[in-house]
Amino acid sequence: MPAPAASPCLPATPVDRPAAPPTPETLRYSLTLPAAPPTPAVVRATIRTVLSAHGLADMTDAAVQVASELAACACRFTTSDDVYVCLRYREEALRVVLYDAHPRHTHPRLAAACDARRRSTLRLPACVVRACGGDWGFGDTREPGGGTRMWAVLPRAGVRAYHSSGHPDE
Q: Could you tell me which of 137, 39, 143, 140 has the C-alpha nearest to residue 83?
């Protein structure tokens, strides 16, 4: 029996469209994950798979280290059951963003203490990002409901230099 013809009113299914191979420029992923101990491992596996599929395997070591630490920090600080991970590649750099529900403290001393604790928790990824010539940070989210946004930008050229130098200590 022949396959039914596609309806002109329905969009083409993925089977009807030729699949373009993933490229660095098409790397755009967002995940909502449980704020649980296994989440950093899920993030590491996801980063490895995504970077390999998009032809960016040379960025794996630094990206896995940074994203895993950001995920662990988000899980540690969040006040909800979930954390949100966003991966993008543009302008020759990988952007890793994690959101957690931990709100900004209104009391200045509590806010300063909490920022210091988070900064201390992020010491290792900060060193990796710096060694790669990238940027990182954290601050309030722009999303409704508040929370904290942590990010790292890893330039591909800097990651290659970091990898070829044997991961220098900072």
A: 39
Rounded Cα distance between 125 and 67, Å, is 8
Decide: pTM greater than 0.70: yes
* pLDDT values of the chain reduced to their tens digit, one per residue, 170 residues: 555 555 556 665 666 666 788 999 999 999 999 999 999 999 999 999 999 999 999 999 999 999 999 999 999 999 999 999 999 999 999 999 999 999 888 899 998 998 999 999 999 999 999 999 999 999 988 777 789 999 999 999 999 988 777 654 44
